Amino acid sequence: xxxxxxxxxxxxxxxxxxxxxxxxxxxxxxxxxxxxxxxxxxxxxxxxxxxxxxxxxxxxxxxxxxxxxxxxxxxxxxxxxxxxxxxxxxxxxxxxxxxxxxxxxxxxxxxxxxxxxxxxxxxxxxxxxxxxxxxxxxxxxxxxxxxxxxxxxxxxxxxxxxxxxxxxxxxxxxxxxxxxxxxxxxxxxxxxxxxxxxxxxxxxxxxxxxxxxxxxxxxxxxxxxxxxxxxxxxxxxxxxxxxxxxxxxxxxxxxxxxxxxxxxxxxxxxxxxxxxxxxxxxxxxxxxxxxxxxxxxxxxxxxxxxxxxxxxxxxxxxxxxxxxxxxxxxxxxxxxxxxxxxxxxxxxxxxxxxxxxxxxxxxxxxxxxxxxxxxxxxxxxxxxxxxxxxxxxxxxxxxxxxxxxxxxxxxxxxxxxxxxxxxxxxx
Amino acid sequence: xxxxxxxxxxxxxxxxxxxxxxxxxxxxxxxxxxxxxxxxxxxxxxxxxxxxxxxxxxxxxxxxxxxxxxxxxxxxxxxxxxxxxxxxxxxxxxxxxxxxxxxxxxxxxxxxxxxxxxxxxxxxxxxxxxxxxxxxxxxxxxxxxxxxxxxxxxxxxxxxxxxxxxxxxxxxxxxxxxxxxxxxxxxxxxxxxxxxxxxxxxxxxxxxxxxxxxxxxxxxxxxxxxxxxxxxxxxxxxxxxxxxxxxxxxxxxxxxxxxxxxxxxxxxxxxxxxxxxxxxxxxxxxxxxxxxxxxxxxxxxxxxxxxxxxxxxxxxxxxxxxxxxxxxxxxxxxxxxxxxxxxxxxxxxxxxxxxxxxxxxxxxxxxxxxxxxxxxxxxxxxxxxxxxxxxxxxxxxxxxxxxxxxxxxxxxxxxxxxxxxxxxxxx
Lengths: 427, 427
Hints:
Keywords (chains A, B): Ligase
Order of helices and strands of chain A: HHEEHEHEEEEEEEHEHEEHEEEEEHEEH
Protein name (chains A, B): Glutamate--cysteine ligase
Organism (chains A, B): Amphibiibacter pelophylacis
Number of domains of chain A: 3
Largest interface: A-B, 44 and 44 residues
Oligomer: homodimer
Low-confidence stretches of chain A: 1-8, 385-394
EC number (chains A, B): 6.3.2.2
Radius of gyration of chain A: 21 Å
Helix content of chain A: 25-40%
């Protein structure tokens, strides 16, 4: 059962929201035509921020980790999407190999892995777990918080294929974002489907490349709806070589913060928005909410203390942060009870399969909510899927979140095509 | 919200159910391979009867009329399946023309039509209603019980296409079972998709042809699972020319009732089943639960009174009953509170999108429940989709109902291929 949201944005929806709701058949047809040309990146979760005056995706995760936060009622939708995926990729398949993150002692993450296994089992596959961790040399049991047990097994490379002992999969699904680099064992797998593709991993991918594709998608979409793309597109700039710990490259960051704040200020003025602009400075290849900072003035960077610099200098798996994206901050106007909230949309294939609110009681509307202390409140699915009007006085803004999530999904599809190392062969 | 079933079959599941649950990946793969060769008939609802010792579909409706009985939580699944359908049939489509039944004053049926319109609207199409009723010569409003209004419009035939005024659809979806015959306006539509195909209408289709295909499907499926097909297949025989009102052709019915009861008796003996066998005599091309009779002994037919004969002599739209199917009766062991219940499974494309129990307080376990006084209790969707075990003491028999529904769906696909008037061109 999906609980009703205790409180959320319930005021009259603004013009942008109204336009998106009214244009549903046009929007869905536009997506259909886009998906005829582009392949979605298997699965994806997108953080959306709704400022009231603007709504935009701010982070697109190609190795989503929160499937455990989807409610049982959302499961059938994920299973149906998984069935559609299998049919397209290899309908004759019996086996799916899932490669999770190595730090597999986190109970929440393990619950996510278990949920993914359930989804693909229900879609009709035998699912087993393979580990990229060299320390896993034999089948290893991991105890979950609910008492159940997951078994990870060592990967076996045989020429062009990856196997487990007595288990030859057709598809290898990564739920490991490859922050630590692309392992050799995953290279040159020409006989199996490895999804998402290697260029989706943080060893290769950058947020700025993603938001470059998103800008392209946002412009196309905005043209169809006859609106200013800025209303759905977060502006961004980037710096290629920054070391917060050593204090090098900070001038580049300051210059871009300054320039971006100027650009935002002009847009705010154009729309009569009185809020104070801010930007988010974050790792261009980071994840897990690490290495993220809210900046309201370029001068703030002068006074960064050692602790803040150290916090900004490493991201996941001990990787040093060096490339930085400076992104327009989009305040979130959603609240659950007294806490600041932002919608997170989950997709498989081209379908929205669920969503929840990330809620944080100790963060402001201009801060990153993906940090310790966050909790998750499910969204009502029927709304997320697009019932345009729930009741006479209750317009549905959940459909809009699904649209924004899918725009970011489509951008990831453009991005994967643009960064595909094989692509030049076909040019 | 989908309510929990107040009571349902909660005893230990028997061997058949256990085998189906354990074989989930094998079963799903088998369906995937079948769907590579066969196209499902757009949408479908199937009445399933679970006797405990046997479980079988007993009626397969290719123009399902109860979408209004699906809960709001099931809607997203139907929308996702509709999206997949549109993508396959005509992804560039903007418009869908829906042709409902003519007797459009029934509030329950109208709620079904409205629900179908909502599903296809949410999937991204403009949906309008066209009427086969010659009395509809201009747009006509129909008031629904909830106060909303549906508008039906006259169909316009232009050479190879059907249109409404200012509305040119890519696909025409029939929710009219054509009991009254195939109207000329629907023939030879070579430029548009007319779904389901004309041979799905009761003007052409027979139940015995369907169950002939179902037997073929049940045999294939049973071979995969290594079991006796009878455990999922209702035996049947048929008579081509019967007139209950005039009393002609009854000898044929009596002979087949006798022979079928004998066949069932032998199977009951083989499995040590102590229940008393019965058969269902019903119109071979009927619908709406009309013209259906439970017979426990061939002699019962001697003593049919005038009222019973008249009841058996007409089916929907005043069509005379002449072809009769005699089908093995499958008692239902499901109960909701004190009432006899049977599961009904809804599908779109190849996907189970919902289901409910048809419940009747005044009928026995060996009687047709599709009659005035029936009510509908939703099933829990997560179970229907196949979560193999809900709790340690609660095995999931809902997955099995979804499997049985899809076996009948697949049989309908075989049936449509076998009865396709165009098919010989490709032989």
